[in-house]
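Annex B. Sample input.
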Amino acid sequence: MYKEFNAHPKGIKTTDCVVRAIATATSKDYLECRRELNQAKRELGYSNYKDTKFLYEYLKDYPRLIFKPVKGEPRIKGSDFCELHPKGTYILKMAGHITTCVDGVILDTWDCSYRSVYTAWEITK
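Annex B, continued. Sample output.
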């Protein structure tokens, strides 16, 4: 359900989860992905590609799954998402984080499977 993976070309663990997740999910080169994100943020009028509103706009062409909270019930966790979606590639917007799930396995620099999932985009290549 979790496998350590770092798309950063130097293997650095830093606060680049947006670039890592999108590069991993789309199989793009990390540096190319970062350039594309920087260009898109300027074109769309955002100051930072980590802005949640930017992410929603940037990923708008991908099918989106929304996980609304249900009063009295816990939110879906990354581990739950992996069990429910054993096939496919997804970018997960979690509480304070964004990651990639490929065929039921979260690929990231740390195990974030306990975090709540707010939305997911299915990445079709």
